[in-house]
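Reviewers of the previous submission asked for a worked example of the structure-prediction workflow described in the proposal, so we include one complete record here. The input consisted solely of the amino acid sequence. No template or homolog information was supplied to the procedure at any stage.
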Amino acid sequence: MLPYQFLTTMPEIIVLNISEGDINTDRIKELQNNIEAYFKGKGRSAVPPVITLCGKIEMEIAQLPKDEAMAFFDDLGINEPAMHKLCHVSYDALGLISFFTVGQDEVKAWTIKKGTLAQQAAGKIHSDIERGFIRAETVSYDNFMSSGESMTAVKEKGLARLEGKTYEVRNGDIINFKFNV
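From that input alone, the workflow returned the following structure tokens.
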């Protein structure tokens, strides 16, 4: 039988769809502070994250080429598209992270819970990999990108690590699992 989770125990995220004139204004900062005060006044220790976005602008910018879109975001003082921000906050609220596997012709992202150990992460790909787990050849995303975006370059620079069963997978790790079945 599957356990049910009451809606009142699920993580919350508050998204405010604001007008273009309210982007980065004191009025919105005050509104965010009022929301935080409301939840603290209700005795809640954890205040849900509050995201602001202007849906109209986001929709218009989404239709532009990437370079033009980034110029508009810069002009408006927006750090990243709302969709990206919402994904980051949602992952965090749900306690999720992603690790990657890199092959000759594809890169694949795998979603796991924070705190998952390497052997259990291997099982996300295939149960045989989890069962025959030997080691996880791991490199961080930042090290991978700074070394020329190649596993060969990563190994030549000594940035790859061999991790065992008890290694806690970190967000953005690129992992090649060694296994024997």
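The first strand starts at residue 14 and ends at 17. We consider this example representative of the routine output the project will generate in years two and three.
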